[in-house]
Structure formats: C-alpha cells, structure tokens
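To fix ideas, we reproduce below a protein record of this kind.
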Amino acid sequence: MSSKKLINTAEGCVDEALEGFVLVNPGLQVLQGHRVVVRSDVEDVIKAGKVTLLCGGGSGHEPAHAGYIGSGMLSAAVAGAVFTSPPPSSILAALRTITKQGAAGSLIIVKNYTGDRLNFGLAAERAKADGLKVNMVVIGEDCALTSSDKTAGRRGLCGTVFIHKICGALAEEGKSLEEIHQVASSAAKNMGTIGVSLTPCSVPGAGPSFELKSDEMELGLGIHGEAGVKRTKLLSAKEVITMMLDHMTNPQTSTHLDLKKGDKVACMINNLGGTSVLEMSIIAREAIQQLETRGVAVERAYCGSFMTSLEMAGVSITLLHLNDTIRRCLDAKTTAPGWSVPLLPVGKSARENPGVMPYAQEDKTAVSVDAVSVPKDMADMLYDMVKLSMERLIASENELNNLDKESGDGDCGSTLARGAKAILQNLGPKDNPGLPVGVPANLALSLARIVENSMGGSSGALYSLFLTSASLCLQSSVTPADWVKALNNGNKTVMGYGRAEPGDRTMIDSLVAAGTTLTEKVASNTPLEAMEAAVQAADKAAQSTASMKARAGRASYVSAERLNSPDPGAVSVTYWLRAVLEVLKRQG
C-alpha cells in the first residue's frame, strides 16, 4: 500500500515541484523542455569570466540540488525522476546554458552512483566535443562500507553540499576551473558521512522502500533507501551518535575517516526528511559535545535538511577537515535558498564563544515579603496539606492524562505531576522544611515561583497567578476569612487573565464553586464544616463539566461530540482540595 502524499500525480510530481520552487524563488528559472533549474542571471556570470557549477541527480533529496543554486553556489541543477539519474540530454542542455566556447568553463559535481557517473560523464564528453571547457569531480564520502572488496564505491551523500559551497565560493572569487577542481577533489577526500534511519521512505505511487520494525533502526543506509551495514534496536540519541561516530572513525573499516585529537572540522547534521526539529537539535548537541570530548574542535556546525530522502525519519552526520581555504569558503556569502547560514559572532569564529552565556541566576524558590507568621502547629498543618496535595496530584497523573486525551494532547496529569514533584523536592523534611510553611504569604509566593518554573504551559502560569494573588490576602492576618479571601482573590485573577468563567468547562468551575461555598459557610460554620461543603461543591462542579460546552482553554477547539468526560483541570482541583480537607480532619 502506498504512503500518503500531497501530490496530484506520481508522474507529474517532479515537474510540478520544480515549477513551484521557481515560483517562490524568482531568481531561478526552469529550462524549457527540461528538468533543469538555472540562475536567471547566468549570462552575467559567464560574461564576468567566472566558472559555473552544475550538479544534479534523482529527485526526492530536496533541497538538493536546486536549492543550492545562487550566487556563491551552483549555477544550475538537473533533476531526474524520483531517485533516478537524469538523462544526458538534460545535463547537456544545462551545460550549454551555463557555459560557452571561450568561457571560463564549468565544473560538474557528481555523486558517486553508477547512473550519475554514466549520464553526467556522457553529457560531459558531448559538451567537450562541442568545444566547451568542462571538468567533473565525483564525490564519494560514505563511511558505511566495512569491506575493501570491489564494489561500486563509496556513495555520494550529504557531503556533496559542502563541495557545492566550497566550489561556489571559489568560483565567485574568480578562481580557475583547474584550481576549483583541485580544491574540490582534496576536500572530498577529507570528509566522511554516516547515516541512520528509524523509518523507510516511499517513492510517490509506491509503498515503503524497505521495512523496519517499530523498535528497530538501520545504520549506514544510503539516500535512496539502500540497505545499511547494521540493524539494531532503537537507541537513545546519545547512543546513536556514539555508534555513528565510532563506525565512521573505525580504522578497521575500509571507508573510515581519519580523525584524531586536535583536528578541526566542520560538522553537518542532516535531516533525512522526517525527523522533527526538536530531535535534530538534540542530535546536534550530542554530536558536537561528543566530538569535542574526543578532542576534535568543531569550528563550523550546520543543522537542518540539506540532502533528504523524501520522508525518511533519520539523520546523517558529515565531518569535513578544515583548512584556511575551506573555512573561508564555508563562511562566504551565498544567495542559495537551501544553504543554512548559522548566526556567527561578529569578528569571531563559529565555536570561539561557549554555547552558554553567563547569567546571574536568581533563586527560583526563595521569596520573602514582610508578612505575618503562624504558630508551629499551624505551620505543621500547612506542611502536611502541601505534602498530601502534591502526592495526590502525582498519583492521579495517568487518570488526568486519560481525561485530557479527549480535549487536549493528553498531558494535563503529567504537567501537574511535574509541578507537584518539584514542590515536594523543595518542601524537604517536616523537621527542617525547605519552604516557608510558617509564613503563609511567603509559602504561597514560593509555590507560585516553583510551579511557573517547573510546570510550564498554561497550567503553570494559571496556578502561579492564582497563588501570587492569593498571597496578597495573607500578609497581615491568616484567619479563616482571610484564607477564603485568598482563594477568591486567586480565582478573580485567574479569570481575568485566563478569560474563563464558571460554565466554560475549566478548572475555574471547581475553584469558583469552592470559593462561593466557603464564602457562604465560613461565618456560621466551623472551618472543617465549611471545607467539607466546599469540597462537595467543587466535586459536583467538576463532574458537571462533562456535559458542558467548552468555551475556554484547549477544549474549546474540539468538537462538542468528543467531550464526554469531566474536564481534567477541574477534576485536579478536587484532588488537592480533598487532601486539604483530610489534613483538617486529622487535626480534629
């Protein structure tokens, strides 16, 4: 069964993709009758006496190669069908467009695949027969092969993009075809690439190119879904990078890259198409840190989608040894839309500054205002209330997550548990608490600071607002009436910023029900009786949210037909309120 793709037809996808690409890049044009993308100003480049550059290959590796056309990189790119080398006729048409008799000439950059070598080589020979000055460099930097037996050779992978950049910068400087070819050949011998995949890709109109179980990954595969050298169980990012670097630099393999302590390299972390940006940054961190731990200086680092394999989930790492010429070429300006330009410090090398900027860290929990304190027995009771409330929230993590799956992304319980764990960590032992339980106003402020830093999201912000506002009512006295005012003041602030009201299917339903009931009961009942009534009211309000139409929060974006269970935020309020009640009962 074919994989889902947003295309019109499998047959027309390459042509339509090229047309769309030049529509959003007006400096590029498609050569009529061919799958060739060319710089619109290529005639000016030829007249200026500069060498032009051509690359290409099968489609499906975007942004390669059309994305690397521009000043300082390629002059043109030839696209074949998906994962298929382009025909010599289109390659020759491209060469005839980007160079003329008597011009500085054109360098063809070819990835080391049999079809590409044959088709580009044939076009190059025909161009020479036409009197054009043409040279060709073949890139094969794959480090996957373990045997020295005769094969088609090392495959050309993402390192080809480095060659685009180096050659493009030299051409822009006005260097000769011979000099550019020499530098490119030398650079190609001093780099290596290794890839790993978590899932296969699928050619438009066809099924997956290979099979991988949900707990498997493949090391050393090519950019067309060719088999790798080893299949393993899924590993962590750290373990994957270690495995990749170990294989790439293993002197026992015939295709390894020599890498030793003190070497200076450029590192390209390439997305094979289906890896999230979040994962890519984690992988970049691991790769750079592990290389520098090995004593290798990563002076230039690039992370992004440079040479993909359709939607394959995976990454490749390319390492290129640096010298002054290559470093200068990598830093040179280019207008090519596919080249990722790192933010470099002004006047400094890319890795000269540490990745962390010094900052005077503030204490994320210590808060102190001039406020009234309470006797030890009440402080102990507050300690028990905080502790039991947090334990109940942690215990309800899975239940609240399941409720949240109806209306959100299923993380409400995890978010609250994360905050609860942070509070317990800071709370410490009862005989030496780490939070100011003896000063209720400062306790509320401390809890607010912890949840805003540990919970994150809207829950962390709302509870921090609630506790911060509640603390204002506990500064001068802490009578039962003051605690009720604190609850109501917190509710008012949350409603003001969160824009939710009772009946909107949020935590406000439970909070306001408890606050309203306490306001009614506190004057004529004992604190325990008032709290029992408040918990009952909050629980009833939470259960009633199951039949409410959501008008605030994430649930308001979900179809009403899907909302059949109580709101997890409202339910969570009842858990910590009930814990407070239990501690009150213990005190008699």
